[in-house]
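Section 5: illustrative case.
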């Protein structure tokens, strides 16, 4: 398995398991089976509401000797309502307690939006703070404190465009080590990838299969299905593999970590075996033709009137 190397030499398996929408009642088995298949990189978040069950699965896997704590990489994320300086470390400690861990390998700021403490899912301007009131650097100083305290080995962000990443990096003592963003064959984000590469920030591709299991309310009515995309189908035929394997192999070939979610052991194995597929230069060029800049996770849900949090602010400013 290809790995990404961090500034202190720590290594991360480039393929991991996503856990958003992995329901309580199914995520325990999903974690245990993924570990047995060979996954060593797991992507979690407080807001996925399943960290307790994931914690049980890890505790049992460690106790059964399936894997050692130091041989797995566990990422989690700080939710939007815990950006104020007094809220960051308590939020992180809650995640650590739910996951039954002493430390996280990577802790990420989930979104650049800031919600007031009582509003996990803000619905209007009054339920948010502006970034003038709670600047990203205020949150980041606490993320840095988590590293100093040994609670996180590495820290980073999600859904940060290059302007926000640059602004934060200029003030940071620890430059973000990871930016986790949506990437798949219809959304290449070459410019952001280039920026991250130049600045030593690793990138993780989320929703690499187009996130087909999101609820209907989160989906656009004309949403494209990546599994039906002619370029992806053509490459799957050529390599005698599945469409999912092409999408995952493509992400790895670009040097990004990739975290497809599956609770199904057969699909977990299928996805894991993508590491054996090598796409040629011609294949990569053909894939370039699929990039239309299409986002599945659009960020319009927090574009409240009377706030700075427009979709344009999120992705472009
Ligand atoms: N930082 C962020 O803001 C952010 C946002 C979105 C996602 N993420 C992370 O990225 C992870 C992945 O993204 P995602 O969950 O949005 O979507 P995804 O990984 O693109 O797609 C997951 C869906 O694909 C199905 N699937 C998995 N493997 C398959 C295969 N080989 N063939 C056919 N279908 C397959 C899964 O079904 P089964 O489970 O039934 O197999 C599930 O319905 C998340 O789980 C989360 O950890 C982070």
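Designed sequence:
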């Amino acid at each position: 398995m290809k790995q990404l190397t961090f500034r202190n030499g720590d290594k991360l398996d480039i393929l991991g398991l996503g856990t958003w929408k992995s329901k309580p009642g199914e995520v325990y088995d999903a974690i245990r089976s993924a570990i047995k298949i060979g996954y060593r990189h797991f992507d979690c978040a407080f807001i996925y509401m399943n960290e307790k069950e994931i914690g049980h699965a890890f505790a049992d896997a460690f106790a059964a000797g399936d894997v050692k704590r130091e041989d797995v990489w566990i990422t989690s994320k700080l939710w939007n309502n815990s950006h104020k300086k007094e809220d960051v470390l308590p939020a992180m400690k809650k995640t650590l307690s739910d996951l039954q861990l002493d430390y996280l390998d990577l802790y990420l700021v989930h979104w650049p939006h800031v919600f007031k403490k009582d509003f996990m899912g803000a619905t209007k301007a009054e339920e948010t703070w502006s970034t003038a009131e709670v600047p990203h650097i205020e949150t980041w100083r606490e993320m840095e404190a988590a590293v100093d305290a040994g609670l996180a080995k590495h820290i980073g962000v999600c859904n940060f465009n290059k302007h926000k990443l640059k602004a934060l990096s200029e003030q940071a003592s620890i430059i973000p080590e990871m930016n986790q963003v949506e990437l798949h064959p219809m959304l290449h984000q070459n410019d952001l990838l280039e920026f991250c590469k130049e600045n030593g920030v690793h990138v993780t591709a989320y929703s690499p299969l187009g996130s087909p299991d999101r609820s209907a309310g989160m989906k656009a009515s004309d949403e494209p299905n990546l599994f039906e995309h002619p370029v992806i189908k053509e490459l799957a035929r050529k390599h005698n593999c599945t469409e999912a394997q092409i999408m995952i192999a493509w992400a790895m070939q670009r040097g990004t970590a990739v975290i497809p979610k599956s609770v199904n052991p057969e699909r977990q194995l299928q996805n894991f075996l993508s590491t054996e597929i090598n796409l040629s230069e011609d294949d990569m060029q053909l894939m370039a033709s699929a990039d239309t800049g299409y986002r599945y996770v659009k960020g319009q849900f927090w574009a409240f009137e009377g706030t700075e949090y427009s979709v344009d602010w999120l992705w472009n400013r």
